[in-house]
Design brief:
Organism: Parastrongyloides trichosuri (Possum-specific nematode worm)
Mean pLDDT: 88
Shape: globular
Distance between the termini: 32 Å
Protein name: Peptidase_M1_N domain-containing protein
Structural class: mainly beta
Low-confidence stretches: none
Number of domains: 1
Pfam families: Peptidase_M1_N
């Protein structure tokens, strides 16, 4: 696999996901807004990225749960239920 680090290989991403309304959507981007749709879905719109290579874009949609901790550093750890 070839990885391109040249500025020309970097682009801006604008990601929107239309998913079932009860599912969470995660990304390494911040959520800009969520639009509710009448068919039982929602559209999750994420903030635009800076110029980055495509391999740095990530998102997850599914029946996932999280645990969180506030001991100095705030974080969440996600997993599928039962794990």
């Amino acid at each position: 696999m070839i990885y391109l680090y040249e500025p020309i290989s970097k682009v801006t991403f604008e990601i929107s996901l239309q998913i079932k309304k009860y599912l969470p959507a995660l990304s390494n981007l911040r959520v800009k807004n969520i639009d509710k749709v009448d068919d039982g879905t929602k559209i999750v719109n994420f903030e635009s990225t800076m110029h980055i290579p495509a391999y740095l874009v990530a998102f997850v949609v599914g029946e996932i749960r999280f645990i969180k901790n506030f001991d100095g550093t705030r974080y969440r750890a996600y997993a599928i239920p039962g794990n």
